[in-house]
Amino acid sequence: MKTRYTRRQCLQCAAVMSLLASPLLHSCKQSGQSCMDPELLSTGEKHLRKQLAYVELSEELSRPCGLCHFYHASESGDCGECTLLDGSVNRQGSCTSWASETRRES
Length: 106
What we know:
Elements: H1 7-31, H2 43-51, E1 71-73, E2 79-82, E3 87-90
Antiparallel strand pairs: 1-2, 2-3
């Protein structure tokens, strides 16, 4: 026998699930640290980061800086260096110039 759900039951379930997921997602976003002070960047560096749409915490989990060809890890936790952005970036960040790190081996 098939169980049928009403539209109301589906909407109630979706509302409850979003309420339960919200604190979890919020705590994940807070865990990322800022790797650079935007006030210390030159106008050119700020412009480049804006042009490449760099964000400190990527919403695209498959393309974080930490898996990019241009990222070089450092010993300071989540921060590393990006050869394109010429400075410190968060390994959980991303930009539009992401490239697979497998290119590094060739």
